[in-house]
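#onboarding

Welcome to the new folks! Below is a worked example of what a typical request in this channel looks like: someone posts a single protein sequence, and someone else replies with the predicted structure as tokens. Don't worry about understanding the tokens yet, we'll cover that in week two.

Example request:
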Amino acid sequence: MAGRTSKFLIGIFVITGTVLAAVIIIWVGAADVFRKGSIYVTYFDESVQGLQADSIVKYRGVAVGKVKSIKVAPDDRLIEVVMKVDLSSDLQNHTEAQLRTTGITGIVFIELDQVRPGEKSSSPRINFQNSYPVIPSRRSEISRLLADTNEIMKSIKAVDFKGLSDQLKNTTLAVENFIDGKQTNSVMSNLESTTANIDKAMEGLRVTMENLQSFSESINENPSELFFKRPPPPRKPME
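Example response:
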């Protein structure tokens, strides 16, 4: 009798657990179905590693939806991300989607933001039919950083360092030849001669200025000498 009671209680417990599990599954599914919002799709031309179904969709930091599914697009190149977003604005024409990472945790989510005025769109072209309205995507910060780094490396590799080195050597050699050449030596000799002449002229000018200054001081001290000074005695004829 006790054995039958134990089996009965175990059966009741199993049935109750199964019913509760079914109710929870149905409730969770119904909550997702009846959640407010509209279905949109976006396409990324980069790795979406870390993003998964039920990842958060944010609009300027505010949670506004979730990712429903992730798969490879029909062109076998882009990644298709379907999401349910609770926003009433026109997301197709004024909003872009971008992959973002939460701090050091590495959790990836989708950030929606207004299209930046004047910024060139980086959203990939879609050449196939879509079941939902498409929100353009924007390359992630890491993806753009890597792309810019690759462009810089390509530019560096394209520089002809050997040609620049040869050109620099030729220029240096030409300068050395010019400095050591006869024409340069002649120019330097003429320059030295001109400098010596200028020094002599400056010395003569200095003496003249000193004489003028002495004469001026003499006149200032005794102006009458300029008008009443006796002329020097006439020179005697040489015998």
